[in-house]
Amino acid sequence: MNSQSNLAFAWVSYQNRNVTTIHRNKLNHLYSQTAAGTPLTSTDLAELGISADLAVHYVRAGWLTRLARGVFCRPNDPLALHPSLILLQRQIQALHVGGRSALDWHGMRQYLHSAPVLDLYGWGTGRLPDWFTQRFPAQYHRKRLFDEQPDALLHVAPFDQGPAAPAASSPERALLELLSEVGVRQPLQEARELTEGSYNLRADVLRELLQHCTSVKTVRLCLQFGRELSLPWAAKLDPAQLPTGSKRPWVSRSADGLLVLKP
Prior knowledge:
three-stranded antiparallel β-sheet; 10 helices; alpha+beta
């Protein structure tokens, strides 16, 4: 090999080492900038200087795991629920933890029930991705229970006001979301038992939500349970100021039997 060939070989080797160093530096930067268990989209990677082609290289090298098209995570790194939910919130409009799951997060739970399924609520038609449901059993509810806007949901906020926490319903909203499912996917008796533990709900928050509630059934069921269980907040609510519908009984038949709700 002549001297010119040696120089060319040395230059190629230098370039390869340089490229490898750059790739490893980007990978180290990625690992240092993301918490363990955090899923990342192609957009997230691009913001960290990792192109689509480089992401493919990392996957082939075993330095990244591909969860789905355009979604990745660190290898051998079990996904964490909260950052996974935050990613879904960017993809599904108004997504938040609600209903029974939000009640459970707030400490209002029923101890004798089957393995929990995460109840997620959103504004429009949506589907939870397989990479999420395979790790976190969940069901999605397309629900427009209140007169509100998707970018300004009533009493939905980051859970415990954490800096990187997923959105969740307040206990008051979660209870109404739960009651709205009675006769559909929510057994009546379980709803009643969970409502029985709601004595600490804030009457002013519940009043605001009920005033914006678009479901007569939900409003009447909340008031009826509140009265029957002698809950403190029930005495502070005036049915005349709430959308309870007409003076006729609300009647529905379900697996629990006939449900009759008076105004």
